[in-house]
Structures are given as structure tokens and as C-alpha cells.
Design a protein that fits this description.
Elements: E1 33-38, E2 49-51, E3 56-58, E4 64-67, E5 76-79, E6 85-86, E7 98-100, H1 103-108, E8 111-116, E9 118-119, E10 126-132, H2 151-167, E11 173-178, H3 190-198, E12 204-206, H4 220-223, H5 225-231, E13 236-240, E14 243-247, E15 251-256, E16 261-267, H6 271-281, E17 289-293, H7 315-322, E18 327-332, E19 339-342, E20 352-356, E21 370-371, E22 374-375, E23 377-384, E24 387-394, E25 416-418, E26 424-426, E27 439-442, H8 451-455, E28 464-469, E29 480-481, E30 484-485, E31 487-488, H9 497-508, E32 512-514, E33 517-518, E34 529-533, E35 540-546, E36 552-558
């Protein structure tokens, strides 16, 4: 890569990083991209990382950059938003940190672009991040959208809840990340998704999911064109406060043999994205906390399989690269389950934590009120300098009506009901559902010991009380029942009884999702179930749990 001597873009600064930046490209000596970066009031910003999707450079002291870029393959010129600044928003509320290369610029052989960012007026190191996953709407006349609730209506409730949550936060900036499957194979619904973002009142950073690819396309690159047209790059980086964010497209789409549609995929990074990732992180000090976001889990999965050990798609490569940083939080959706995992000290990934976010709009296909044990909702992350904490925020709205042929489920295991305005009210005291709700307790006699016992309808374990603590991980305290520590249930034995109830009902109505299988209950890989012995046939008990940040949650149950 050729740069002017005073550009400052060739060399990573003071990060002791042996990775040579801008691997994977033979320079031609011709500058094809140049421009400036401003930070408000004509302030020229030095040290901002600019990329063409492969190469990365930094602006010099005059805010100037230039890249020896192959414009025949370059789609976007991207700026990694610098700490202390925000990107301007377009009319849809999307952060604009990129420039789409035009055919005219390719023909001319030169891209000239100026980026302008806005300085943050309050403390830039104190902010809130709202993280959702897999809204995945379908058209309301789609076959799978008529089992229970229309997905577009549930999405609207989701956007309304996020908007109202953000409005309660007035002492810091609010940002969002949506972890992919923004639509479900219907490219026309990107406009609906964007219309929802327009209502939020805060910028949303988006991630490409497998269902966001056009399944009629010929290959992986063609499949993501509609997403790129509507939402911009599928991989990029930005900075907020002390954290460096990396967004990755980690599904390599390929044709399905049975129908020649682009619905199969390999998990990992293409060679180009892997090269870009190395080049981007070459400019990041290794003492920095990384926030890595992808659609599919990149590391430990809820079936306790280690994805990053496989060679395919540079998995072992990126695992090794991330292991060099002080702290890494890896965010993903895709599996529709909640799974948080902290690598042990004995692991070479001991610096890394996994955060898999369940489907924010509920059970797949039915869009019912929960997703494999976790209610509809999202994760709220609070950041203050180096301190990062999070909690679960349940969505309080369900304004759409039940559709389809099925009778209304009993919702025997749901702790809340929706009033005439579609607002969730707790059955215990009539209060509105809130972030105080971080667990679901099952009364003695409700929960079978194993999934097999449940399916075979064997005797319930009437002398145990069970609890599902939604975002529990090994750094939380174990929950206590009436002051005594509860026992963790093995993930192969744990399941969500509420999911079983509603899925069994819809399955009994004859709904079919595929030609060879009927809709019905399945077991879940749930890692957050605990139990305690309770001899009384009737009574009252309290479960308390202290999260890893010292906050205590409490819930009382009678039977």
C-alpha cells in the first residue's frame, strides 16, 4: 500500500502488535482513494482508521488519508468512528460512517470523500448499548406467520419497547446492535425493518444474518447485495468510549443441493474478511476491550461445542488473534437461545466471554411470548469507562391479536398477562412487567426432572422447586431458595416448560413447518436452571440471586 510519507496510515501506533497491517494485497503504487476526516467546527481528526474493506490506514495530523485500493472490488470506503464522536444519521436513523463507491468513481479511477463526525457533548465513556437479535419478520400472509402471532406486529412491539427504554436514559448516549436475521428471506421487508429503526431515537448498528441473504442469488457475494444496498457494509468497526467494536459477517452462504437456493452456509470468515480483521486490529492497542458482534456464535455454543477450534473459515485463526487482547466480549444471535459463557482460566481464551442473545421476538414461527425459556426481549449493556454490566429487558407489549386456527394457550407457566392495551401486567401484583423480572420460578410439582420424563409424562418431582435465571453465568452467585443455595441442573436435562406447553398445543393443531416434520415441542440447551428441595405440599418461598455486578433480584412464589 502506498501512502504519502506524512500520512501516518501505514504503521500501527504504540500497540506492540506484531501483525503487519494491510496483509493480503500487493500494492500498485497508485492512489485511488483519498479524503479528509472532520470532527465538527472544521476540526481535522488525526488517527482515524479508514478502510476499503481490505486495507486499513490512519489519517495524519491534517485529517488526511489515501489508499492504494483496487476499485474493481471495493464496495465501500469506511471510517472506524473514533472515540468521543458519533456518526451523522441519515433520514432512517442509520449511522453513516461509510461511502458507497459509485460506477462513475470506478471508471474515473478515483474516490474522493470527506467524513464528518459529531463530538459527544456528555461523557463519551459512559453509554448504554441495547442489543437485540433475530427479529426475523415474514409477510403476514406467509404460511408460517399464521400459527399464532404475526411477526411484523411483534416487531413493532419490540421497536416500541426499545424506543421507550431509550427515552428513560437521559444522562448518556444510547446505541443499538441488532445481531442479524433482520428479515426472513423476504428482501422487501428490509424497508419495514428500516421504518422500525426510524422510530427508535438512537443509532442502530446492524449485522448480516443468514436469512438476510437473497436466497435466489447465485453465491455469497450476490446474496448480500440487497442488505448492502439498504444497510451498508456487512463488516466494519467503530469505537465507543474505551471499547473497540468489530462487526463480522461470519456465514459463507452456498447453494442447497435439494432446490439450488442460497440457504446453506459454512460458518467462519472469508479470506477477505479475515485479512481486513487483521488489518483493522493492527491499529488497536491490545489493552483495549473488544466487543465482537456476529450473527452466528463464533466460539462456545449452547451445545458446548467449540466452534473456533475448527480450521474452516479461519476459526482457529481469529480465535488466536482475539486471544491476544486483554478482554473480548463476543456477541451473537442465530441459535434463538440465551447462552452466556465465561472461559475458564485454564483456557487460551480466558480473556473471552460469550453472549448469545435469544430471539427478541419470541419463539420461532409462533412469535409467542418467549424464546426457549427467555421472554421476548433484549439485553441492555451499561458501560462506564472500563466497567461493563448488563441485564435482561423483557418486552412489555403485545398489541396484536392471536391469529390462526388454534385455541388460546392456557399460559399456565407465564407470570404475566396482557391487559386491554396490550401491556404485560404481573399476575402476582398487577405491576407492569419490567427489568426486575430476571427469572422464572416453577412451583413444586410442575417441572419433571428430565425432558424424557416430561415427554413420557412420568411422575413429577413434587418435592423440588425450579428456577430459570435468564442471563446467569458462572460469575453470578448461585440462586438461593429461602436462604439456601440451589443446585444447578445439567443442561442436557434442563428445558423450558413454558415452551413445551405452547409448542405442544400448536403441534396438536396440525401445524407443519416442513413436509417431513410437524410443529411440536423440542428440548432446549438451557444452562440456567436450578432446583431446591421443598418438602411442603403447600406454602410460600423466595428465590434470590445476586448477579455478577452485585445487584440482587428477588421473587416470591406461593403454591
Amino acid at each position: 500500500m502506498a501512502c504519502t510519507p506524512d500520512n501516518g496510515g501505514n504503521t500501527p501506533g504504540n500497540n506492540d502488535n506484531p501483525n503487519k497491517p494491510n496483509q493480503g494485497y500487493v500494492p500498485t503504487g497508485k492512489i485511488t482513494v483519498k479524503g479528509l476526516v472532520y470532527g465538527g467546527s472544521n476540526e481535522k481528526l488525526a488517527g482515524v482508521v479508514i478502510s476499503d474493506g481490505l486495507l486499513c490506514v490512519r489519517t495524519n495530523e491534517n485529517g488526511y488519508f489515501e489508499i492504494d485500493s483496487d476499485l474493481s472490488r471495493t464496495k465501500f470506503i469506511m471510517a472506524s468512528i473514533p472515540s468521543g464522536y458519533t456518526a451523522p444519521l441519515n433520514s432512517n436513523g442509520l449511522p453513516i460512517f461509510y461511502h458507497k463507491v459509485t460506477d462513475e468513481e470506478r471508471k474515473k479511477g478515483l474516490v474522493q470523500h470527506t467524513f464528518e463526525f459529531n463530538p459527544i457533548k456528555n461523557n463519551p465513556e459512559r453509554y448504554t448499548l441495547i442489543v437485540g437479535a433475530d427479529p426475523q419478520p415474514r409477510a403476514s400472509n406467509a404460511g408460517y406467520d399464521n400459527i399464532a402471532y404475526h411477526s411484523l406486529e411483534i416487531c413493532d412491539d419490540f421497536y416500541k419497547d426499545m424506543h421507550e427504554k431509550a427515552r428513560t436514559i437521559n444522562d448518556r448516549n444510547v446505541y443499538g446492535m441488532m445481531l442479524g436475521d433482520l428479515v426472513h428471506e423476504n428482501m422487501s421487508l428490509f424497508d419495514n425493518y428500516i421504518a422500525g429503526l426510524r422510530t427508535l431515537g438512537f443509532p442502530m448498528f446492524n449485522i448480516l444474518g443468514n436469512h438476510d441473504n437473497d436466497y435466489t442469488a447465485a453465491n455469497d457475494e450476490e446474496g448480500r447485495r440487497k442488505y448492502e444496498e439498504k444497510l451498508g457494509p456487512t463488516y466494519y468497526s467503530f469505537n465507543i468510549g474505551k471499547q473497540h467494536y468489530v462487526v463480522l459477517d461470519n456465514l459463507i452462504m452456498k447453494k442447497r443441493e435439494s432446490d439450488n437456493t442460497l440457504r446453506e452456509y459454512d460458518q467462519g470468515l472469508t479470506d477477505e474478511i479475515w485479512q481486513w480483521l487483521q488489518n483493522d486490529l493492527a491499529y488497536v492497542d491490545r489493552s483495549t476491550t473488544l466487543m465482537v458482534a456476529a450473527h452466528s456464535p463464533m466460539f462456545m455454543g449452547d451445545s458446548m461445542s467449540e466452534r473456533s477450534k475448527y480450521a474452516q473459515g479461519h476459526r482457529s485463526d481469529y480465535a488466536n488473534l482475539f486471544s491476544k487482547f486483554a478482554k473480548v466480549h463476543a456477541w451473537a444471535g442465530h441459535s434463538h437461545t440465551t447462552f452466556n459463557y465465561v472461559y475458564p482460566e485454564s483456557s487460551n481464551l480466558k480473556n473471552l466471554e460469550v453472549h448469545t442473545v435469544a430471539r427478541s421476538t419470541g419463539e420461532l414461527w409462533t412469535n409467542e411470548y418467549l424464546a426457549s425459556g427467555t421472554p421476548r426481549g433484549y439485553t441492555v449493556v451499561e458501560v462506564d469507562g472500563d466497567d461493563i454490566s448488563w441485564y435482561f429487558k423483557p418486552t412489555i407489549y403485545q398489541r396484536g391479536k392471536l391469529t390462526g386456527k388454534s385455541p388460546t394457550p392456557e399460559y399456565k407457566y407465564r407470570d404475566f398477562d396482557f391487559d386491554k392495551d396490550g401491556v404485560a401486567k404481573m399476575r402476582a401484583d398487577g405491576s407492569t412487567l419490567s427489568e426486575a423480572y430476571q427469572m422464572k420460578i416453577y412451583k413444586p410439582g410442575e417441572y419433571h426432572q428430565t425432558w424424557t420424563n416430561l415427554v413420557e409424562d412420568k411422575a413429577t418431582h413434587s418435592k423440588y422447586i425450579y428456577v430459570n435465571v435468564f442471563l446467569w453465568d458462572d460469575k453470578w452467585e448461585k440462586p438461593k431458595y429461602n436462604g439456601s443455595s440451589m443446585t444447578k441442573v445439567g443442561w442436557k436435562e434442563a428445558y423450558c416448560l413454558a415452551s413445551y406447553e405452547i409448542n405442544k398445543l400448536y403441534g396438536e393443531q396440525g401445524y407443519r413447518l416442513k413436509d417431513d416434520s410437524s410443529y411440536g415441542p423440542t428440548d432446549n440447551n438451557i444452562h440456567t436452571i436450578f432446583r431446591a428441595y421443598e418438602a411442603k405440599s403447600s406454602g410460600k418461598g423466595t428465590v434470590t440471586v445476586v448477579d455478577r455486578f452485585g445487584k440482587e433480584y428477588k421473587q416470591t412464589i406461593e403454591w
